[in-house]
Amino acid sequence: MAAAGSAVGLGNIWGFPTKAAGNGGAAFVVVYLILAFLLAYPALMAELTIGRHARRNMVQALQAISTGPISRLVGTLAGYSGIIVASLILSFYAIVAGWMVSHMAEPVSTMLGMTGASEWMTGGSTERNLIFTAIFSSLTMLIIMGGVEKGIERWSTLLMPSLLILLVLLIVYVLTQPGATKGLEAYLMPNFDHFNPQMLLAAMGQAFFSLSIGVGTMLIYGSYLSHQESLPRLGAVVTLVDLGIAFTAGLLIIPAMYVAQEAGTDIFAADGSLIAGPDLILQVLPALFETMGSVGLLVAFAFFTLMVVASLTSSISMLEVPVAFSIENLGLSRKVATILVGLAIFAMSSLIIFNFDTLFGLVISISTEWGQPLLGVVLCIFAGWIFNRNQLLTELKQGDPHIEDSLFWKIWPTYVKIVCPTLILMAFAQTIL
Ligand code: PFF
């Protein structure tokens, strides 16, 4: 549940539907599904297997499976990079999630007649951003301070099902509104004109981000797993849940845009493409909710609660990466580690807020478009080339006595060694050339 919670987040409910809308609807969905299974699932398996075997954070885990000074050095560097990239992702993620918190609070203050406060909450001021990022970061820190079972697992088990219920209720509502069918068409009718290398790259980046790969999150969750669990099955469940929620979120977001258009909101940008990014969730959807009268306040509250819940189960998984490192390598207590790391990441978020135009896009690009897939390559190479083969296979057999009959057993060990890193690097070569 926690691993699925890490995977399901803003990337699914916001990133995936908007990318699908802008890249040919179902055509993107098909490419994304293929890449998720072809590239992201094998990389996820590399992380989980290394993590459960080493039972330590990414730095120590990669050091532990290293065989000589060079692999040890590369492993150490990759481990530290993972921690830095996880922290960078959290620093921008907390800002976006903070917007979700402010939009969740807005209908409440409107209901209470505090219109001034409502306007402030949905305005884009620096103070608003700082305060709500701080609120979201504090929530994340509180859960992480609770530890693995009482914090991460308990909250993920509670929050994940509520997210699904909220999502389905909202879909039922939106699909009964005028304009929704046009949205369904835009989402589900493939338009292969959009098929190009850029779209492939967008789909690959989205798959790595969505499955939380490369930064040691899944590795550290793997390190907390018992040997009774079957890793391939667990990885497949996480991948399927993640894809399922992304696909389902598309059924909500894209029809909702067209319902908003029917109600008079402009959903196309100046160049004729669908509005994506912050504007979609923060302008188009609230405009839609407003047309619903007082029910709209409730729907807005429900929707943004959904976003906050999804964000929290992801943000805790990011914060756990540097926190686990500080506990295991620096000997800090969980409480002290959480406070120190949390404050450092909040300082980074503040830096981004104060230099929003230059830093926001840059941090996203460095961490998710470059950092995650490249670290994914390193993890595949460690699993395929450096990790002792017998140990790797033994680890996979734990919790899965019949694994030798499976397709996974026949394909993955070779696949992760050669095909997966090559394909990821080829996708990169495309962008550089
Ligand atoms: N998978 C999360 C999402 O789709 O929103 C984002 C994420 C979580 C990325 C954890 C990286 C990470 F370590």
TrEMBL record:
<keyword id="KW-0472">Membrane</keyword>
<feature type="transmembrane region" description="Helical">
    <location>
        <begin position="130"/>
        <end position="148"/>
    </location>
</feature>
<feature type="transmembrane region" description="Helical">
    <location>
        <begin position="339"/>
        <end position="364"/>
    </location>
</feature>
<keyword id="KW-0812">Transmembrane</keyword>
<feature type="transmembrane region" description="Helical">
    <location>
        <begin position="295"/>
        <end position="319"/>
    </location>
</feature>
<dbReference type="Pfam" id="PF00209">
    <property type="entry name" value="SNF"/>
</dbReference>
<feature type="transmembrane region" description="Helical">
    <location>
        <begin position="155"/>
        <end position="175"/>
    </location>
</feature>
<feature type="transmembrane region" description="Helical">
    <location>
        <begin position="25"/>
        <end position="46"/>
    </location>
</feature>
<dbReference type="InterPro" id="IPR000175">
    <property type="entry name" value="Na/ntran_symport"/>
</dbReference>
<protein>
    <submittedName>
        <fullName>Sodium-dependent transporter</fullName>
    </submittedName>
</protein>
<feature type="transmembrane region" description="Helical">
    <location>
        <begin position="77"/>
        <end position="101"/>
    </location>
</feature>
<dbReference type="InterPro" id="IPR037272">
    <property type="entry name" value="SNS_sf"/>
</dbReference>
<feature type="transmembrane region" description="Helical">
    <location>
        <begin position="234"/>
        <end position="258"/>
    </location>
</feature>
<feature type="transmembrane region" description="Helical">
    <location>
        <begin position="407"/>
        <end position="429"/>
    </location>
</feature>
<keyword id="KW-1133">Transmembrane helix</keyword>
<feature type="transmembrane region" description="Helical">
    <location>
        <begin position="370"/>
        <end position="387"/>
    </location>
</feature>
<dbReference type="InterPro" id="IPR047218">
    <property type="entry name" value="YocR/YhdH-like"/>
</dbReference>
<feature type="transmembrane region" description="Helical">
    <location>
        <begin position="195"/>
        <end position="222"/>
    </location>
</feature>
<keyword id="KW-0813">Transport</keyword>
